[in-house]
Amino acid sequence: MDRIVITGGAPLSGVLPISGAKNAALPLMIASLLTGDTLELANVPRLADVQLLLRILGNHGVDHTVVGRRPGESAETGQTLRLCASTVIDTTAPYELVSRMRASFWVIAPLLARFGEARVSLPGGCAIGTRPVDLLIMALERLGAQIDIDAGYVVAKTPKGLKGAEIDFPKVTVSGTHVALMAAVLANGTTVIENAAREPEIVDVADCLVKMGAKITGAGTARIVIEGVPRLSGARHEVLPDRIETGTYAMAVAMAGGDVLLEGARAPLLQSVLDTLVAAGVTVEPTNEGIRVARNGAGIAPVDVTTEPFPGFPTDLQAQLMALMTRAEGASRIRETIFENRFMHVQELARLGAKIRLDGDVAIVEGVERLRGAPVMATDLRASVSLVIAGLAAEGETTINRVYHLDRGFEALEAKLTRCGAQVERVRG
Ligand SMILES: CC(=O)N[C@H]1[C@@H](OP(=O)(O)OP(=O)(O)OC[C@H]2O[C@@H](n3ccc(=O)[nH]c3=O)[C@H](O)[C@@H]2O)O[C@H](CO)[C@@H](O)[C@@H]1O
Ligand SMILES: C=C(OP(=O)(O)O)C(=O)O
Q1: 115 and 91 in contact (C-beta within 8 Å)?
Q2: Rounded to two decimals, what is the model's pTM?
């Protein structure tokens, strides 16, 4: 298995390109099931999750081609995919594939909306929490689907087609909102989603669906209204920049010190994160090309942060912020409210010398003078990258095992960091 070896201590400088957002690319690819025409998606990151989803869609009969490199695309960022679901041969998504990536469960919505049936494996447990799908099922039932659970599969049918309805989510859910949206666009009549997730990735998917002929208003607010249409057509759409990758590299610069332009990043996608970094004493400057992040000499000030649905501080950056705060001048308080088991990085950061105490859903991080490199491993994507951030500031060598987690969500991580002066190497094996 591959490992990443980091020799800490080098400041970062230069230009680091930001890739397309994984969490938008995945539902956008799934939306290709809603039409028999071609959906062309640009700026799709080259990630293990994207490759796996192509396999899952291929299993349903979706053809894909990778279009030659376009202007603005490089070996490090982005590819253009053409997806065509003109002949869907199978409406079952099997356990072997769905169990490897949660978002693949969302195929249930377009399959049901377009073909009136879907049989999709329950996604199974995951390192960061139990992550049930009850609210996704509730949304589909509200739209008139009959749902049974059979041998670990969700079997959904809608013999007379889906019907528009009011869906009021008792808690904000990104997955629930994606599923409700993708089902409602082909339903008969009007659907209103209340307490909808406002994440930028929801807006990106809604924008693409509108290009495909869907009638959607209110995406990006807590109330989305969808007027169902009988069919959707093909479209071309460019995936928005990855705000989580942006925040991750901003924290890497804050940790290592230096001055880097995060090229293509958009500040409004992560204002709460940028505000936190400014509070920590980091220089953050949105420019026409992206976001400049710098820390030259100044210490890191401790912060008090709670994870929340967008526009609050994202749970997907909680581990990275915690890594940064291990070097702060004082104690930080980080509260995780989205997932009940998302502190798996704490014991690994401790191996590098971090001082972190857990009290329920709160982590109290006592900043230390120095971290020291060590072998570490993590059980999920963002926890793994928090160890990369810590490794950049640790004395000596940090070896990160289980690199497949990083490959799920960070395109060309070593190349991007190395180009900015970090000593990061992938050891194949
Ligand atoms: C591929 C993708 O986009 N993943 C993101 C998505 O995950 P995901 O879409 O799975 O996250 P949700 O917003 O749906 O989950 C939020 C909370 O609601 C709970 N819940 C969710 C659905 C349900 O039916 N019942 C239920 O109780 C979850 O367990 C969790 O505690 O949003 C999360 C929150 O921003 C991010 O961390 C993930 O990176
Ligand atoms: C938790 C994440 O992804 P997923 O929902 O695919 O597990 C993530 O992107 O941090």
Answers
A1: yes
A2: 0.98
Do 7 and 32 lie in one domain? The reply is no
Distances (CA, A) of 351 to 7, 373, 399, 404, 410: 16, 8, 11, 21, 23
Atom of ligand 1 nearest to the CA of 197: 13
Q: Could you read off the pLDDT of 134-169 as tens digits, one per residue?
A: 999 999 999 999 999 999 999 999 988 999 999 999
- For ligand 1, whether the C-beta of 174 sits within 6 Å is yes
Joined tokens for residue 343:
């502190």
Residue 338 Cβ inside 6 Å of ligand 1? The answer reads yes
Q: How many CB atoms lie within 10 A of CB 296?
A: 10
From 196, 222, 238, the end of a domain falls on: 238
Q: What is the ipTM, given to two decimal places?
A: 0.99
* 134 Cβ below 6 A of ligand 1: yes
Same domain, residue pair 271 and 314 = yes
Domain limits for position 122? 22-238
236 HSE (CA, 13 A, CB side) = 4
Q: How far is the CA of 163 from the centre of ligand 2 (A)?
A: 30
Q: Are 52 and 66 members of one domain?
A: yes
